[in-house]
Every structure is written in C-alpha cells, then in structure tokens.
Amino acid sequence: MSRRPLTYGLPAETGSVLDLASRPGADPSGLDFPDRDFLRLIEGHGLTGSWTWDFARNEQVWSPGLYRLLGFEPGSVRADFGLFLSLVHPEDRPVIETNGVVMREGVFNDHTVRVIRPDGSLRMLANRGTAYFTPDGRPRAVAGVVLDVTDAERMAGLHREEQRRKRALFEQAQTWMHASPYSNSLRIASRELLTLTGLTQQDFHEDWTRILVPEERARTRDHVVARVAAGQPFVVENHLALAGGETGRFRGVFVPVRGADGRIETWASLNSRIDGIRPAPKGAVRQGLEQAVQGAHLRAARGLLDWSMADLAAASGLSLSTIRRLEEGSEGPAARSRHAAIEALRRAGIGFLLVEGDAIAVAKVR
Predict the structure, then answer these.
(1) Residues near 366 by beta carbon (within 8 Å), at least 6 away in sequence
(2) Among positive and negative, which fits the CA dihedral 219, 224, 230, 233?
(3) 178-213: per-residue pLDDT in tens?
(4) Helices (H) and strands (E) in the chain, counts
(5) Order of strands, sheet of 48-54, starting from the edge strand that comes earlier in the sequence
(6) What CA–CA distance (Å, rounded) separates 1 from 4?
(7) What residues does 268 pair with on adjacent strands?
C-alpha cells in the first residue's frame, strides 16, 4: 500500500477517522471531510461505515455504521480486526492481510469480500483502507471506509448471467435482442448481427443495407426508413448475407421506446431465424410494444374477456378515470398506467401481437 495521507470523502464518527487526524503526530495535510451530521445521515442508511486502528495505543475504533454493516448494535462488541476476519466468508479470507502484516508493514490493500453476519445473512462489503507512518517509516496506524455493495454485486452477477444466457441463445438459435439510438447519422449494429454477417461497425454505419442480400437492399431501405419516420413498431423479413457466403432468412421486430415526454429515446429489436424459434419479447422490446397499444386495443381486449372498464380497473389496480383516459388516448404512451392495464389483461389470457407490417393484433391466448 502506498504511504499517503487519508483522503476519503466519507469520514468516520467521533473517535475514528476524524479524531485520528487531530491526534499528535497525525498527517498535517488538509482533510476536506463533510461534517459529522452529514456522516450520520449517510451511515443511517446502512450503506457505509468507517474504522481506525492506532498501533501505538493498540486501539481500534468502529463507527456506528460499521457495527450495523457487520450485524451488531453499535458498541455491543469490542472493535477488533480479528472479529472482522471471523465474519469474512472462509473463501475470501486469504485475500485479507493478517493482523501481523498490517501492524508490522502497514499494509492494508483494498478488498471486496463477503461477510456473514451473526444472523446468517450475507453482505458484500468493499473495504478501502490506507496507512499512516511515523517520520522514520514505521507503521503508525491504518484507517478505512467500508461500503455495502451487495446490491451492486448482485446486479453485476445477474447481468453476467443474462449475458451468458443471451450468448447461448444466439449460438444455439441465432436469436437476439438489441437496443440503440437510430438516425441518419448514427446507426449501431449488435454484436450478434456483426458476427453473423462478418461486417464491422464502420461497415454498418456507412451502409447498413450491406447486411442484406443485394436484391433486397433498395426495397428494404425504403421500407425501413419510412417506418422509422412514422415512429411505429414494424416487422420485416429479409435474407441476410452471412459471413460464410451463405444466406439466411430472418425476421426482425422493431419498436420505438419513448421517454416520459413521448419522444423516441431508442429503437429496440427482436431478431430470429424464420425457421427457428420465435422468442417472446422482453425488456426494451416489450416496453416499446406496450407503449404502442392504443385505446382500441384495450377495448378489444376487454371485449374478448367480457370485461367492463370497471373490471379492468379492479384487475389492474387503476382508477376508473385512468382506464377511461387510456381508452380515449389522453394518457401518454410512456404512462405507467398503460403497462399496468396491459399486464392485467395478460394475466387474464390476452395477448398483443405485432403481425406483418405494423398492425397490432389482440387475441385470447388461453
């Protein structure tokens, strides 16, 4: 660990990092910390804590936030590095320095480890520490900040798993989803499409129709440009010019995804081989398709179920006036109420399907 002054933006409570800086022999560099009231606010959310270890005094101090991160009531146990180590998941302990290494060498590297609390719950904690040294280079103290990154680590893990699932689906069935902005000056191809066609991103940007067999390029260009300009979902079926010199017939469902102000933020697509599986829309594709559902579609869906507006309101948890606004078209396309109403209809067995061209069909699927 480098021998540098403590420069964290999140200090500890009284008796911890702030007090360490005020003790005799502390590094005189300026410490620009927020006040303790602000720290208490941050620690009160259970997301951070701090600690110090003064070797000369053999004194370790944990902030109240760190106690709570580790699953203890503040002050209920004695602050001790050995206690912290005992809570670390056995598989993660080897990456943490021992007591002796910390005290003799002033080494405490940054770690992200799993901690098993006394109640058995598991948290992912990121420990960021630094060391203080005497003028003659001997370790004097270490101090650090601990952040709870459990949710971030879990989301990262889920993202990695989803990416693996998508890769497997593409490799087995040549099916993929993609979302990106689209304009005359900006076109971004998915990695899957580039893999299939052997083109580069620059090739696609210069002339995206190169993904197609030559005889379909002009017709498809005109059709896609017109549909994008209309700002409505559409379906196209084309033969792609594959990297090995072969061709393959693919189906693409393209949908605009709008923000709260109703403007298109991105275009999403669901792509698959015509002779392969047809996956259900998810994520941005599903969001865009639901935004395209109009009042007439909702009325048709209610008719298939023999529901009144009051029935749909009750099933979706929306007010009768909201259902009326949705069916009259006075609610914006990105309104959350639209998704709630559609979800209630789906649970009742209604499907909304984008058929050839840009028409949305309403069907009772079960």
Answers:
(1) 349
(2) positive
(3) 888 766 666 788 889 999 999 999 999 899 999 999
(4) 14, 11
(5) 59-62, 48-54, 139-148, 122-133, 111-116
(6) 9
(7) 179, 255
